[in-house]
Amino acid sequence: MFSTDTDPRRLGTNNRVRVLVVAALAAAAILIPAQQRAEAAEVCTGTDCDTVAFVDAGSTISLYQDLVASSAVGVFAFGDSNDEPLMGDWDCDGEATPGMYRRSSGAVYLRNSNTQGVADQTFVFGNPGDIPLAGDFDGDGCDTLAIYRPAETRFYISNTLGNGVAETSFAYGAFGDQPIVGDFDGDGDDTVGIARPGNGLVALRNSLQSGEADYSFSFGNPGDQYIAGDWDGDGSDTIAVYRSSNGTFYLQNRHQTGIASYSLSVGAYRNAVTARGIDEVRSFVPPSNPDSTNPDSTNPVSTGGSVSVAGFAPPPPRPVSGPIDVSGDGCVD
Ligand SMILES: [Ca+2]
Ligand SMILES: [Ca+2]
Ligand SMILES: [Ca+2]
Ligand SMILES: [Ca+2]
Questions:
Q1: Average confidence score pLDDT of the chain
Q2: pTM (2 decimals)?
Q3: CATH 2.60.40, applies to 46-275
């Protein structure tokens, strides 16, 4: 069930009334499927809207084609249960696919298709404990990795994939902040921001350097996980939160304090990751004669509106190299 008018901050008296109204509207939507579809369509009014991949405790990824109920187009496993999930367009074809970051070692595992299988690319980036981020920081159409080092409250940005030295680093945020990546001004370049889980502060920058926030506002509750995406397709990324306590995803289409523009109940997951270009996952259309009885079949098996891929691949190999010189001073950081 989803609503278009749910306050993710708190439920005061006014908001309880609002929730009752929303519940009534939602009940009406059940009776009027056409109205439900119309409300769902409002989340994406452009032609190229981002969606979300939800990752469960076992690193199984449920990839949504649209932010509406029952629109998961891919359900497949990648990585180990403690890995930090990423989505990015690693091969520059317009479609985001999975990555996994092993925070204990800094190992990165990238895959170039939204199917189950082993990594297409592995390397080491950052140090144990770093938080990985994916984005197109130079606007060339290819996503690369950055890390946020909580102990330094510092971002390290790289515009190439592989072992190497970060090209840019700068301090931003405070201890305990969650890093966020997005194209907040819609100019084609991703930049970063932070969310402060204790009070819901969101502070976003439009350039890759320390400085005052270009946008700051409040959104979310303690415990929420923050991501950014272009949910309405207008070219600019805005904030969303996934609230694991109630299994609900809340998004905001403006850089401002206020109620969520849209929410979607998706169930219990470990992480939510922004997914771009997922409308191009046409390869998931099942073949005319899928072997649905063979669990080892490589054919995708259609089950209603979602598609699952049978089989389970072994985890990707661990690289042998160790921590790298991220800051470029010639020493391992
Ligand atoms: Ca891609
Ligand atoms: Ca890039
Ligand atoms: Ca930008
Ligand atoms: Ca937008």
A1: 78
A2: 0.75
A3: no
